[in-house]
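Morning!

This is the sequence you dropped in the shared folder:
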Amino acid sequence: MTLALPPAGERTVDGRRVRCRISGDGPPVVLLHGIGRTLDDFTALHTELARDHLVLAVDLPGHGGSAPLDGPHTLPALAAAVARFLDVAGVTGPAHLVGNSLGGAVAMRLAADEPRRVASLALLNSAGFGREVTVALRLLAVRPLARLLLRPHPGIVRRTERAIFHDPAYVTAERLATALAVARQPHAARVMLELVRDLGTWRGVRPQWRADLLDAVAALGLPTLLVWGERDLVLPAAHLAYARTRLPEARSHLFRDTGHMPQIERTAEVEALLRELWA
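The structure's back. C-alpha cells below.
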C-alpha cells in the first residue's frame, strides 16, 4: 500500500502551504471537507461540477497536505483561512459553498462572517445541528484516550472508514491509503484535538456555538440545501429534522441507505440537487 495523498495542486497562502484542486470555468463552487478528512472526499462530485463551474476544493488548515495554522484551529480560524485561500485563488465575489460534516459548519461560519462571499449554502450531513456525534469523536475529548485513538494504525483507519459509509464497497484500498497518509502527518493529531475540544466535550457538540451560528445563518436568508444520509453513524439523521426547523426556507433531502458522505455514495443525486438549488 502506497501511503501518499492523491495528486493535487498547491497554493501558498500567507506563507502557508495549501493543498487544493481547482478546475473548470463558470460560477465558483467551493467544496469543504470534514474533520480529519481531505478534498479527496469530493473527487467524483468535483469532476462533474467542473463541466460548467469553476470548482475549488481545498484541504482545510492542518488537514491532508495543507500546513497547520500558527494559532489554534477553531471554527472561525478555519473559515478565515478559506476566505484567504479564495483571495489568493482570485475568487472575491459570491461563491456556492458545499460543505460536508465539519465543512458544513465552516461554510456557515464563512457565510456569517463574510456574507458577500456566499451565493448559496449546501450542507451535507453538516455539523452544527445537534449535540449527538459518534462516540469516537466524543472520546477524543478524554485526554488519556485521545492519544490511543489517534494512532496512525491501519486497524483504526479501517474502522473509521467503515463507519463513514453505509455500503462497505466504498472502503477501498485507495481510501484506506489516503486516510493512513493523513493520519501520519506530524501535526494531524494536534489539529484534530484542537478542533474536537473547541467544538465539543465528551458529552457531545457544544450548544452555544451552534445556536449562535444558526441564528446568524438564518438571518442571511441564503438559498440553502440540507442533505443527509439516513444511515449516518457520525452525525445522526435526526439532526435533519432540527435543521429544517432552524432553516425552514431551505430545501432538504434524506437519502435512504446512505452514510455520512452522500457526495460519494450518491454522487449523481447530490449533483442534481445542487444544480436545482443553483438554478
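Headline: The CA atoms of residues 16 and 180 lie 23 Å apart.

More detail when I'm at my desk.
O.
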